[in-house]
Specification:
Layout lengths: L1 E4 L5 E11 L2 E11 L1 H23 L3 E6 L5 E4 L1 H7 L3 H4 L13 H13 L4 E9 L5 E13 L2 E10 L1 H23 L3 E5 L6 E4 L2 H6 L3 H5 L3 H4 L2 H19 L6 E9 L5 E12 L5 E10 L1 H23 L3 E6 L4 E5 L3 H5 L20 H18 L4 E9 L5 E12 L6 E9 L1 H23 L3 E6 L4 E5 L3 H5 L16 H6 L2 H12 L7 E9 L5 E13 L3 E11 L1
Antiparallel strand pairs: 1-2, 2-3, 4-5, 4-8, 6-7, 7-8, 9-10, 9-13, 11-12, 12-13, 14-15, 14-18, 16-17, 17-18, 19-20, 19-23, 21-22, 22-23
Length: about 550
């Protein structure tokens, strides 16, 4: 028997028979049968089988074929072996339950029942597989019933979804974290349509910041939630940034200051970061905003601006010297430019020279010993203290200039070195005035102590009696030290009345209410003397003013009439 193909591509099966007919020997019979269709069917079957084998063994998904009744594994591909960590030799002729790939025979029967009941002869489900390495794998399974090799089989396709599950879990945790942050942060997180400017989401923190609930805000028009100027500015900026971003000029975020209106009608300033959320096509579909309350920050910034103005005003106007010194060597490391106007020295002429070179000769030893003492105190206690002293400083012309010096020790945070920072103030005029005041005060007391009238003075600001003439003891029986140094509120009302201080109290009140005539008063009053007689007294009180009509002293003269 041979199989041949003719020139027309027809296939024939030719059978040659040897036989004898009518006693004639050595004859043959040739039977020719057209098997073209059979041949085509066989070829198609072969191709199909090759495709099946290729698909079975080369599939990236794991494929396992098992006997439907017994669960015995008949065939597996390499992807399945790699997935679960077994070789094909370990799997063939064993059951999935025996290998621990399925929980039990009952579970396998439930899978078969679900396949049959599905009506589609297939069933999808998920499993966790514990492979020999101890790694737990999440798999998605697709099982169906097929008839193979004259037996019913279950064909299962398995796909590893461990990374997908882990990604889903990360997304779930991220989502939980997002909601945790959004629900508890003090910042307001919101989503807005970039065309209609309507809110689609706002975090619960809006209640803490603005007094509205999330549900209330989502029902509100954005115009009712922010100021009109903010609304107009935000629309312009959003449209400009979207256009610029689409043209590649701007990033996908920008900042804007938004002034919200809270439930009490008060304005709450916020610093808002707005980001663009895009779809797969790259179109901007949402605006994601994060608004932070900056009320406190704006107050601090305003204070800083004010302090900065004060600092520059002070730095530009002060005539005091500011200097820095190394206490171990007493070398000056810095001197402010005011040294030129005060002493005639350039700041550079002070640098890297010991401070004692710039004080009078008789004060140098005192200065050196004081510096050494204060330096040691700081080393022992590491506590900064303020020191005040008066020194005679030498000017470049050779004159002596009295300076009041205030200094303190500190540790430089950058270098770790101990330094002294000090300010020096010219007190030549103060010294001169001090001498003059002492002379005047001596003359003042000499005159007032010998007048035949009671004279007292009062500090206007503190309301403290600063002087009472000795004659008080002869007139009223009180000693001056029973009144001097006491405020009006601490002196007994009887004494106030007897020396006319109650009149001064009324006079001060009238002046502070705007009565300019109250600056000077002459008043006669009567009081009961201890001997029973009624004694008349005349009192003259005057307020001593400086510029801007501000009183600094009050003087009273009490005399008998």
């Amino acid at each position: 028997m041979v199989v041949v193909q003719d020139s027309n591509n027809f296939w024939f099966e030719i059978t040659i028979l040897r036989f004898s007919l009518l006693h004639a020997s050595n004859q043959i019979a040739i039977i020719c049968k057209n098997i073209t269709e059979k041949r085509i069917s066989e070829e198609e079957l072969r191709i199909t089988q090759e495709k099946y084998v290729h698909a079975f063994h080369e599939s990236p998904n794991g494929i396992i074929m098992s006997d439907l009744e017994t669960g015995e594994i008949l065939e597996v591909n390499m992807s399945y072996c790699n997935l679960i960590g077994y070789s094909s030799t370990d799997l063939i002729r064993k059951t999935t339950v025996e290998l621990g790939l399925l929980q039990s025979h009952t579970f396998r029967k439930s899978i078969i029942r679900n396949i049959i009941e599905s009506g589609l002869n297939r069933y999808n489900y998920e499993l966790k597989i514990d492979n020999p390495t101890g790694r737990i794998i999440d798999v998605s399974c697709f099982s169906s019933i097929i008839h193979m090799q004259k037996r019913n089989c279950m064909l299962t396709v398995i796909r590893d979804i461990t990374e997908q599950k882990q990604a889903a879990e990360r997304i779930r945790k991220t989502d939980e974290l997002y909601h945790l942050v959004a629900d508890n942060t003090m910042d307001i997180i919101w989503l807005m349509n970039p065309i209609s400017f309507s809110l689609s989401f706002i975090s619960p923190s809006v209640n803490r910041l603005l007094g509205w609930t999330s549900e209330q805000v989502l029902q509100m028009n954005i115009r009712d939630l922010i100021t009109q100027s903010t609304y107009m500015r935000m629309i312009v900026k959003v449209r400009r940034y979207i256009k610029g971003h689409n043209e590649g000029k701007f990033p996908d975020f920008f900042r804007v200051r938004i002034y919200f209106k809270n439930s009490d009608g008060l304005i709450v300033p916020t610093e808002t970061l707005i980001s663009f959320i895009k779809d797969k096509a790259g179109e901007i579909t949402q605006l994601l905003g994060e608004s932070r309350d900056i009320s406190y920050r704006l107050k601090i910034e305003e204070q800083l601006r004010r302090y900065k103005r004060y600092y520059h005003l002070f730095a530009d106007s002060t005539s005091d010297l500011v200097w820095v010194m190394d206490p171990s060597t007493r070398l000056l490391k810095y001197m402010s430019p005011s040294s030129i106007s005060m002493l005639g020295w350039e700041p550079s002429e002070f640098c890297e020279k010991p401070i004692e070179e710039f004080v009078s000769h008789e004060m140098r030893e005192v200065l050196i010993s004081s510096c050494q003492k204060h330096y040691q105190e700081f080393l022992d206690t590491n506590t900064s203290r303020q020191y005040i002293c008066e020194l005679q400083v030498l000017s470049k012309s050779g004159n002596v200039v009295w300076n009041e010096i205030i200094s303190h020790y500190y540790r430089n945070e950058e270098t770790g070195a101990i330094e002294v920072i000090g300010t020096s103030r010219d007190i030549n005029e103060k010294k001169r005035l001090g001498i003059r005041i002492r002379d005047l005060e001596g003359n003042f007391r000499l005159i007032f102590d010998n007048l035949k009238h009671i004279i007292w003075t009062l500090d206007y600001q503190s309301r403290v009696i600063t002087y009472v003439s000795p004659l008080l003891s002869g007139f009223l029986g009180y000693q001056p030290d029973e009144i001097t140094g006491y405020s009006l509120s601490d002196i007994h009302p009887n004494i106030l009345e007897k020396i006319g201080l109650n009149i001064l109290i009324r006079q001060i009140t009238e002046y502070e209410l705007g009565d300019e005539t109250a600056k000077y008063r002459e008043t006669t009053f009567f009081y009961n003397h201890p001997d029973g007689s009624i004694m008349p007294r005349e009192i003259i009180t005057a307020l001593i003013l400086i510029s801007e009509q501000r009183p600094v002293q009050a003087v009273g003269i009490l005399k008998s009439v």
